[in-house]
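Regression test case RT-17, inverse folding.

Input:
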């Protein structure tokens, strides 16, 4: 797994024009490790709301340096497990408008200005979750329904339709 994460991160660096920006999710912190392995030595910690940049691979982010780096110098080259701790800034969705059976979404997208003939395809996948009560109403749990779909887009914007009325 470790080798696969490293290989995927190197491949991502080869195709991306620059490191991807991530943010440590609110209420979370993230441990930076020497290698993409939970048993690896810890190098430091990232705080809630902190912006960082790097190259993803195998569920991990290899922190990048450089002139415009958002990463503290001593953590460059370290690895952070993405999981629920990190969110890619380029895919942070904003709701522009809601309709009865659709929702209008936008996100920053990838910067392809320096790439000749770059083509990017985005896909918004969604699944309607319904809350239900189990055990006499003492515990709330989420169970996925059969209602789901996907919407492809060539731009960092999409109107997702086919959503059951009133749930958007």
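Golden output:
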């Amino acid at each position: 797994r470790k080798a696969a994460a490293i290989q995927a991160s190197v491949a991502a660096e080869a195709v991306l024009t620059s490191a991807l920006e991530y943010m440590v999710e609110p209420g979370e912190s993230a441990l930076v490790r020497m290698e993409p392995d939970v048993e690896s030595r810890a190098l430091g910690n990232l705080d809630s709301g902190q912006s960082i940049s790097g190259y993803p691979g195998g569920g991990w982010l290899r922190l990048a340096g450089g002139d415009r780096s958002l990463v503290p110098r001593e953590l460059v080259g370290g690895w952070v497990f993405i999981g629920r701790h990190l969110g890619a800034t380029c895919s942070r969705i904003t709701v522009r408008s809601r309709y009865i059976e659709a929702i209008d979404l936008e996100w920053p997208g990838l910067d392809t200005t320096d790439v000749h003939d770059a083509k990017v395809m985005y896909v918004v996948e969604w699944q309607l979750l319904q809350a239900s009560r189990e055990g006499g109403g003492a515990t709330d749990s989420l169970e996925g329904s059969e209602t789901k779909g996907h919407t492809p887009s060539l731009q960092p914007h999409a109107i997702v339709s086919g959503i059951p009325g009133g749930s958007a």
